[in-house]
Amino acid sequence: PTYDHNHDSFRIEFLLVPCALLSLVINHEFTVMEVLWTFSIYLESVAILPQLFLVSRTGEAESITSHYLFALGSYRALYLLNWVYRYMVESHYDLIAIFAGVVQTVLYCDFFYLYITKVLKGKKLQLPA
User: Fold this and answer.
1) Is 42 exposed, middle or buried (0-12, 13-18, 19+ CB in 10 A)?
2) Torsions phi, psi of 125, nearest 5?
3) Domain boundaries of the chain, sorted by first residue
4) 56 CA to centre of own chain
5) Is residue 123 pLDDT above 90, yes or no?
6) Are 24 and 17 in contact (CB under 8 A)?
7) Burial 54-80 (b: 16+ CB within 10 A, else e)
8) pLDDT tens digits for range 15-69
9) Which residues pair with 61 in a beta bridge?
C-alpha cells in the first residue's frame, strides 16, 4: 500500500545491461559460474541506486527506510575491513570485489552524512532542496 508508482521511475536496465557487459569483459576466468559471480558482484555494488533515486525523487525517507539503508551501507563498509584482514592474514585479495565494494561504499557516503546529521538527531531524513 505504500508503493508509489509516480516516483518509482528508475529504469533497472540501466544497471543490468552495464553490469552484464562488464562481467563478460572483466572477470577472472571466462566460465559460466565465474561470469555469473562477477555479474552478481557488479550488480550488488549498484543495487542501492534505485532506492537512493526514489529517496531523491520524493525528497524524504521514512525512519525505517533510513535505518535499513544505513544498515546496508554499514555492512558493505565493514566488509572493507574483511578485505584488509584477508590480505594481512592470507595474502589474498580480489580486485573485482574490492573495486565493486569501493564503488558501493562511495554511493552510500552522501546518505551516511545525511543519516548521521539528521536521523541520529531524531529528525526525519529530508534531502536539501
Assistant:
1) buried
2) -70, 110
3) 10-120
4) 15
5) no
6) no
7) bbeeeeebeeeebeebbebbeebeeee
8) 999 999 999 999 999 999 999 999 999 999 999 888 888 877 777 777 788 888 8
9) 125
Within 8 A by CB and 6+ apart from 26, the residues are 38, 96
Q: Would you tell me the crossing angle of helices 49-58 and 95-117 to the nearest 10 degrees?
A: 20
Q: What percent of the chain has pLDDT over 70?
A: 94
Residue with cell 527506510: 65
pTM summary value? 0.80
Nearest partner of 75 among 110, 112, 39, 127, judged by Cα: 112
**Helix and strand tally (H, E) in the chain?**
5, 2
Burial class (CB in 10 A: 0-12, 13-18, 19+), 47: middle
Instruction: For residue 56, give the amino acid letter.
Output: S
Q: How many residues does the chain have?
A: 129
- Find the helix packing angle between 13-25 and 32-46, rounded to 10°: 140
Could you tell me if 15 and 47 are in contact, meaning their C-beta atoms sit under 8 angstroms apart? yes
